[in-house]
Specification:
The complex is a heterodimer of chains A (about 325) and B (about 300). Chain A has helices spanning about 5-20, 30-35, 40-55, 55-70, 70-80, 85-95, 115-130, 130-135, 245-260, 265-275, 280-295, 300-310, and strands at about 80-85, 100-105, 155-160, 165, 170-175, 180-190, 195-200, 205, 220-225, 235-240. Chain A has about 325 residues and is an alpha+beta fold. Chain A has a 5-stranded mixed β-sheet with strand order 4-10-9-6-7, covered by helices on one side. In chain A, strand 6 (about 180-190) and strand 7 (about 195-200) form a beta hairpin. The radius of gyration of chain A is 26 Å and the shape is elongated. Chain A starts with a helix and ends in a 15-residue tail after the last helix. With about 300 residues, chain B is mainly alpha-helical. Helix content of chain B is about 65%, strand content about 0%. In chain B, helix 3 (about 35-50) crosses helix 5 and helix 5 (about 70-80) packs across helix 6. Mean pLDDT of chain B is about 75; it is low at about 1-10, about 165-175 and about 275-295. Classes of the chains: A alpha+beta (about 325), B mainly alpha (about 300). Chains A and B meet through helix 1, helix 2, helix 3, helix 4 and helix 5 of A and helix 2, helix 4, helix 8, helix 10 and helix 11 of B.
Chain lengths: ~325, ~300
């Protein structure tokens, strides 16, 4: 080691690694799973942490990976591949009217149900584009948004914009109060300065054409005020953020990657979930609805839309289309 | 080779049946009843979800099932269930691969044969702990492949043979000379504390990349393979992580002069190693206070 930078780096790493505790070594299942890229994210992190401080496990894991061949097994286990079935099996399948060529994952069930296919697609995307999908985890149908409680009772419900929006001129949408048709929409900066106020009828307002567009990476509050039927002014507020240029670009890139690598019938749904994970609630809603328009009975699509609605402060059920802020 | 039940087992909607059929195709025939395989495999799957701290929702189950080496698991379960012919199938396929692995690690042919046989014998022994399995092989749960799992066992066995004592590996040698390089003990303590803080802030992938690079001396291409990243990305990770460590030291008040002193001391150490006969003589270009002995 003659390069001074190299020597210094080596010294620092050796010094700190020597002082690190190692904890209990993972069993052979975990090490083999780590070597073959087959662990769940949290487990992979735990094992990776251990490996950084344990030379024996690093060596064992590296040997396991070299032994199975890095590309061969994990790729075969993870990627759908075309399988030409054997002559005998093909004969049997043809006899019962089946196909001789099946699209299936090696050594596992055919990729038929949406949930399994989503997991498969997410795993392939994470492997091919870790920069875009490294932390992406498809939505579990039983998952609820953090902090999602009962939808707001009484008053109007501010549906969009919420979370993070891509557009710098987003449309405003709310679930109206019973019997109320006239509303007042205001937009404020985080310092409380009112940027504009507009009157609206119905439950939607396009971004005013004469108002300045929103700044990327900035958080705003919007409010909705109206006179109730029994008198008295009611006002509801909601914060949202405009995606930074990097966030907007990353989502666009993710859309292209999904377009290029995911089966057409799964694209909108997968991208809806990607949008959800990034807080892009409006995008997630648009994409989930687009998916459901083509696959209205798909349970994962419905679960995704329910998740979106909870984030928007709406009740998780009804409608795929209807008066509620559509 | 015709395997009774293999075709019928390939029911399109049953991943375990598919795994069993795949095992017959890739490993060889053994008469493991599907229900016994499913019972054992489902129990192992549930344990994996529990180990990962994942709620056993249908979605999590589907994701884990998808990542399971089901054919390999079928062979392991067949052996664990003492199915006739299963150990022979395992032996026939695994022994040559383990022997090859041992040979690759520099063992003579006879030693490699012995080691591979020993590892296979170990798989048939009762396991430690409370796994509920009859054999070590019964603890295989299909997280990775059976060969990868056996490779870990073989390498660990080799490590035990090579390092019979429980001495820590030699990587911590620098730890023993803080005063020599860093000066006083207080500075060394501050240095270590700042370094540990900076290290703790690194992501696990950064730490592991640094360990592969500076502790194991692996080349960038190999680290990229191990971390499943591109070599340029590994380079960025390593350089970024080193910069973070050094920033951590600076932000703790351990400023540039200390870093310069360290560089010089390390360079000295290298030169001493290269020229052991002059190791005790001070080097002419070393900055800082000269030793007393140089006074006239």
């Amino acid at each position: 080691v003659t390069d001074p930078d190299e020597a210094l780096s080596r010294y620092l790493v050796r010094r700190v690694a020597a002082a690190e505790g190692r904890g209990e070594c993972p069993d052979a299942n975990l090490l083999a799973g780590f070597a073959e890229g087959a662990l769940a994210t949290a487990e992979e992190e735990r094992v990776g942490e251990h490996l950084a401080g344990c030379p024996a496990c690093r060596e064992a894991s590296a040997e396991a990976q070299a032994a199975v061949g890095f590309e061969a097994r994990p790729a075969a286990r993870r990627r759908p591949v075309l399988w030409v079935v054997s002559a005998a099996a093909a004969g049997l399948l043809l006899a019962v009217g089946g196909a001789a060529l099946l699209l299936r994952e090696r050594g596992s069930r055919p990729l038929t149900d949406t949930a399994t296919r989503l997991v498969a697609a997410a795993s392939d995307l994470a492997r091919d584009r870790p920069d875009l999908f490294g932390g992406f985890r498809p939505l579990d149908p039983q998952e609820r948004p953090p902090g999602a409680g009962d939808p707001e009772r009484g008053g109007a419900r501010l549906v969009a914009p919420s979370g993070v929006v891509l557009s710098t001129r987003p449309a405003f949408r709310w679930a109206g109060a019973p019997g109320v048709t006239r509303y007042e929409v205001s937009l404020e900066g985080r310092d409380g300065t009112t940027l504009w106020t507009r009157a609206a009828e119905g439950t939607e307002l396009a971004y005013p054409s004469d108002a300045s567009e929103l700044a990327r990476g900035t958080t705003y509050d919007w409010s909705l005020a109206f006179e109730g039927l029994v008198g008295g002014r009611t006002e509801s507020r909601r914060a949202f953020a405009v995606a930074t240029p990097e966030e907007a670009r990353a989502f666009e890139e993710a859309s292209h990657a999904v377009e290029a690598r995911v089966a057409p019938d799964l694209r909108d749904l997968l991208l809806a979930q990607v949008a959800l994970r990034r807080g892009l609630v409006a995008e997630a809603e648009r994409l989930a609805r687009a998916h459901l328009a083509r696959h209205p009975s798909d349970e994962v699509g419905r679960a995704t839309l329910r998740h979106v609605r909870l984030l928007q402060g709406l009740s998780p059920e009804p409608p795929l289309a209807g008066p509620e802020g559509r | 080779m015709a395997v009774p039940g293999a075709i019928l087992d390939s029911r399109a909607d049953d991943p375990w049946a598919e795994g069993l059929a795949e095992a017959h195709r890739t490993w060889g025939p053994f008469p493991l009843p599907l229900d016994r395989f499913v019972a054992r495999a489902e129990a192992l799957l549930a344990r994996r979800l529990e180990r990962a701290g994942t709620a056993p929702t249908p979605f999590a189950r589907a994701a884990t099932l998808r990542q399971t080496a089901r054919a390999d698991l079928a062979v392991a379960v067949a052996c664990e269930e003492r199915i006739s012919g299963a150990w022979e199938v395992l032996h026939a396929r695994l022994l040559p691969r383990l022997r090859g692995l041992a040979r690759k690690r520099g063992m003579a042919a006879a030693d490699a044969e012995t080691l591979a046989s020993d590892v296979l014998s170990e798989l048939a022994m009762p396991p430690g702990g409370a796994s509920g399995a009859r054999t070590v092989l019964g603890t295989f749960d299909g997280t990775g492949s059976l060969f990868g799992w056996s490779a870990v066992i073989l390498v660990r066995r080799l490590s035990r043979l090579a390092r019979p004592s429980s001495e820590p590996p030699p990587e911590g040698a620098e730890r023993s000379d803080p005063a020599e390089i860093l000066g006083d003990a207080e500075t060394a303590d501050r240095f270590d504390a700042a370094l540990r803080r900076a290290w703790a802030r690194l992501a696990w992938r950064e730490r592991l990349a640094l360990a592969y690079r500076f502790l194991d001396g692996r080349p960038q291409v190999e680290i990229a393979r191990l971390l499943r990243l591109s070599p340029p990305r590994v380079s960025r990770i390593v350089n970024g992580a080193v910069a973070k460590l050094r920033d951590g030291l600076r932000s703790a008040g351990l400023e540039e002069p200390l870093e310069r002193r360290l560089r010089v001391a390390l360079a000295d150490a290298v030169r001493k190693r290269l020229a052991p006969t002059s190791a005790s003589a001070p080097l002419p270009d070393r900055p800082g206070p000269r030793p007393e002995a140089r006074e006239p």
